[in-house]
Amino acid sequence: MKRITVAAVALLCAANLPAITLEECYRLVRENYPLIKQYELTEKTSQYSFENAAMGYVPRIALSAQASYQSDAVAFPDEFNSLLKMAGVEMNALPKDQYKVQLEISQTIWDGGYSKAQREAVKAQQEVSMLTLDKDIDALKTRINQMYFGILIMEANIRTSMYMDTLLTSNMSAVETAVANGAAMQSDIDNIKVELLTLRQQRTQLESTLKTYKDMLAIMIGRKIEDDEVFEKPEIQLVDMSQNRRTELMLFDARIRQIDSQKKMLDVAVMPKFALFAQGWYGRPGLNMFNDMMSRNLTWNGIAGITMKWDITGFYTRKNDRHKIDLSKRSVEVQRDAFRWNTDIQQTQIKNEIDRMYEVMESDDEIIRLRESVRKASETKYRNGVITLNDLLRDITNENNAIVSGSLHELELLKNIYDLKVVLNQ
Fold this sequence. Notes:
It comes from Candidatus Cryptobacteroides faecigallinarum. Keywords: Cell outer membrane, Coiled coil, Membrane, Signal, Transmembrane, Transmembrane beta strand, Transport. It is found in: Cell outer membrane. Helix content is about 65%, strand content about 10%. By secondary structure, it is α+β, with helices and mostly antiparallel strands. The strands form two sheets. A four-stranded antiparallel β-sheet has the order 2-3-5-6, with no helix packed on it. A two-stranded parallel ribbon has the order 1-4. Helix 5 runs antiparallel to helix 6 (about 185-220). The longest helix has about 70 residues, at about 115-180. The chain is rod-shaped. The model is unreliable at about 1-15 (pLDDT under 50).
């Protein structure tokens, strides 16, 4: 019951003070984590990659120019030229200096599904990148739990220390009276002073540890924690052991989908591709070779049609590549199974610890009540000279230890519950 009284007094004193909650810490650490900016970078990178992948059916336009001189050119044999001269026709050889300015346009009709597969691969990669960041951020919750519940434990120990300080100080007056009346020795006063000094020394250490926890938590959540801020004790919550929502499991599934997209890319890479094309150029020689033999003028020329390209070299390694992809997928599945196995062991361990704490806590209030009763009786006995001061100090220490253990058990239970929630991502 004493634990309830101490907690109630603390709550009344903190009623009008600013408070910080565990859920708020979860939110702030996510907002303050430096890698949170990576989300935006990953999203923009994926957007650009997706837009590029969608360009598969955009017309391709190429402008080129060429000037050349060759050692020989097409010409009629001398005998045939002699016959042409007899007919009054003179056909020169094609000029050895040739010029061309060309514009080429091509439009893909069907790329074998490559553009679609590429877009799906980009989406799969983005999902993997995002879930990887989620996994890293989720891991911060465990560190937040350590800091937050460490603060609650330190505060509880400090409150109990102050309660014991009050008990020792109040008994000091009784001892001083007994010494004045000759019923006790000066050493009794000295013993209590030693206990008080030791207690206050320990409290200084607790306060230093509390400040360290608060400073570390402040860095993680990205804001200053004021001295008068109260850390709310989280409520006991039920955890569904059958619902494992760990980001790592979703990441494994995303990696499998990414591998499947790679397999699809491998399949479409060996498909034929069809496209329309058109070429137009100004230069010499042109399509009419005989006209170029008779004239040295530059001419306009053009050609259009349909092309089919089928690169079959991918068939040479396709079988082995598919086997490698299947092995990669199996490797991820094995890692996922191992992660589930480890998680099941971890959650079972925490669940058993939670059950143990529930059982232990059932007797905490009764132990504290009995320790308080024994201490009060010892105070009366000491005043009546029945027991020594050491006996009284022992009973005061036992009551203090019982209160500390009761608070510690409750906070350990809460920490285990919230650690289990982190393990299952609930």
